[in-house]
Amino acid sequence: MFDGFEARRIDTDRAAIFLQFGETGPSLLLLHGFPQTHPMWYETLAGLAERYTLICPDLRCYGACSNPPDGNNREGYRAAAGIDLEPDRADAAARIACPLLLLWVLVLWGVGSVAGKLFDPLAVWREKAGVVTEEALDGSHFLPGERPQQELAALKEFLD
Predict the structure, then answer these.
(1) CATH level 3 topology of 1-93
(2) Domain boundaries, the chain
(3) Is 57 within 8 Å of 6 (Cβ atoms)?
């Protein structure tokens, strides 16, 4: 599936992280969402691998990565659900220095959706990053599987 990529395991003091690494040009980190793993990017990789060094890790507790030392598994691992609260507090004032692309599914995050009525994801990310570009794509939940060509086009436009 990941022809031309090298599988790597990086051991840290908090977890072992698994990733696929393909080296060509400038680095591009592709992070998956819940509950996927790095193969979610498979349909998108071919369109990016010729120009970029792609780094596709599994997030901690997903795929081939380890669970935290306390044994929590991904069922207990959610953003701000406990195991990362201390590092989150330490990084609270930090800002993302590079441009950020927020791709989101219109049905799930649009103005008329439940999430869209509760908060503004774009505003949340703008608190953390200086330059935020956003694009809403049609889909139900899983953009890489449902709309890989739209996702790839949005990524290429953002990166050019």
Answers:
(1) Rossmann fold (3.40.50)
(2) 1-93, 95-160
(3) no
